[in-house]
Amino acid sequence: xGRATDTDxxxxxxxxxxxxYDFESERFDxxxxxxxxxxxxxxxxxxxEVSYNTLEFAFAKASRIQEVEERFKNYLSIIxxxxxxxxxxxxxxxxxxxxxxNDNSPVKYPRYEMLMQYLSMGKNMDGLHNYPEYGAFICGSxxxxxxxxxxxxxxxxxxxxxxxxxxxxxxxxxxxDSSWDTKIARDIFWEQSMHGILQENAGVNSKDFQTEDDFFxxxxxxxxxxxxxxxxxxxxxxxxxxxxxxxxxxxxxxxSGEKTNLTPREADFKNHRSYQYQDLTTRxxxxxxxxxxxxxxxxxxxxxxxLGILANLENVQKYLQETDFFKKEGRNYKQxxxxxxxxxxxxxxATHV
Length: 353
What we know:
This protein has helices at residues 7-20, 65-84, 110-120, 152-161, 163-170, 185-191, 212-219, 241-244, 301-311, 313-322, 325-329, 333-339, 347-352; strands at 23-28, 34-39, 45-48, 55-58, 143-146, 202-203, 223-229, 232-240, 250-254, 259-262, 275-276, 278-280, 285-288. It is of the alpha+beta class.
């Protein structure tokens, strides 16, 4: 009906799933509401992502996309039936359509409260947008695929090279509140926020990596911005990973507004999170993060696209080396993604991609 999400409806949804279906709660907010559920049948999870307006489905490993899709449809049918009794529903969009009406406060949980306050440091800073609450209303479709020590660098390079094509195929987050000429506002929200102050920390990689050392040198320039001490979460202005341990002290803030000086510790790297679109994880996967949430009838198309590229990696790598596309368009991968996510793309450019 175009009104704000009733967060009580959202909280009651997870309570009902916990009480009447095959779930157990892994996390609660400060008010005692369940905010992350785990299936008792497998490792699937349903949780609030940053705010109470966004529900994330995090699926256990599977060997076939159809396995995941079947479980998703089952969860979705249960959830939509519950929500529609309260005139609510989940929608497959890259930006919550009624974000401006919503209560975009973070979930009452330290990680999300810290993240929102950290992003608020960028409000009114030159070169950054003024929507620090964006984490409460942007929605993505992410997939992790197994990689090996032998192929992960090729995987990262190949998928980084095709970000223009992914922008063209999967854009679904046009932002009506701005004059941004893009169908993927999620890119601007990430890259022109505190997450993107160090350009190696967010978005498209600026180059191909020739060696493993080259890749890790790039990661060394990603950002640390949070640490925990005695069970409390703190945030601070981003510091490049390779400069972090050389800091004598760091001026930091707690989620209650307390200012303190922290001494860097190696253990702080456990909280390190970069926001690159091709992210190597400690689980032996690459996580692909640049696709908007898709309409429900296309939910797993981007997953199939990624898996198909990985299954044909050598052929795709060869094709990208020989294609005329980069001869005509150049290899500035960040600019190419911006070009092919514009609201209007010329016929010749569309043919190239």
